[in-house]
Amino acid sequence: MKKTVDISKALSKTWLFSTLDEADTAKLNNCCTLKSFKKGDTVFSGDTREKCIGVLADGEATVKKGEVIINRLSSGDIFGAVTLYNSSDSFVNNIIAITSCTVVFISKQGVEKLIDSSPEFSKRYIEYLSERIYFLNSKIKAYTIPDAEDKLYNYLCSISTDGRAELNIKMTDLAKLLNLSRASLYRVFDELVSSGKIVKNGKNIIII
Q: Structure pTM?
């Protein structure tokens, strides 16, 4: 019983699953696995072969491509939805716990039960995939713009919420991600601040 309550609570934090009623949630009882991870553990990686969606019930994790941090996940965030119906057998990134965390893994079979029984879930799943495509396109744009200042500014916009961003990435990794030298990256930050496009206070960025 405790497992069912924990899973229901975790799913309610997540936009994709938040509209499920008790009957829909009950369909997932035999399709979910609840796992705990310690700081530094690998939650999901290229070696993972299971087709599933992961829901971060608590804690935080980072999405990494090699040594570069792509994204940061917190309670209520999900991963794996984009690759659920991909023909590839492996996940393209690594997800590493940066605090102790608990993850609900929902099997492909469980997701298909929801698709068959809940039109609202199906609609939200399509919306989520569409938003991920937009997000990835914005990332590609940020990384391929030739002008260094525009490249950094677009990257900051892509990770911001309501004009605010937090840099949860080392400057060395960010420089690699944007294909800039560290010196160029610091210079471009100074230029964005001087031009009034951003306000920078440590890791916290306000986009003007």
A: 0.69
Q: For 47, how many CA atoms within 13 A lie in the half-sphere containing its CB? A: 2
Helix spans in 76-199 (H): 108-117, 119-144, 148-158, 171-177, 182-194
Do 110 and 155 belong to one domain? Answer: no
Using the 3D structure, point to which of 135, 164, 194 is the last residue of a domain: 135
Q: How far is CA 146 from the centre of its chain?
A: 26
Beta bridge partners of 60: none
What radius of gyration do the chain's Cα atoms show? 19
The set of residues, in sequence order, having a beta carbon less than 8 Å from that of 38 and lying 6+ positions away, is 97, 100
Assess contact for 92 and 136: CB atoms under 8 A: no
CA distance 186 to 183: 5
Domain that holds residue 201: 145-207
> In 13-43, which positions are buried (b, 16+ CB within 10 angstroms) versus exposed (e)?
bbebbeebeeebbebbeebbebeebeeeeeb
Question: How do residues 78-105 score in pLDDT, each as one tens digit?
Answer: 998 888 887 776 677 899 999 999 999 9
Q: How far apart are CA 80 and CA 69, in angstroms?
A: 17
Q: How confident is the model at residue 120 (pLDDT cuts 50, 70, 90)?
A: very high
Burial class (CB in 10 A: 0-12, 13-18, 19+), 104: buried
Residue 159 — φ and ψ, nearest 5°? -105, 5
C-alpha–C-alpha distance, residues 164 and 203, integer Å: 11
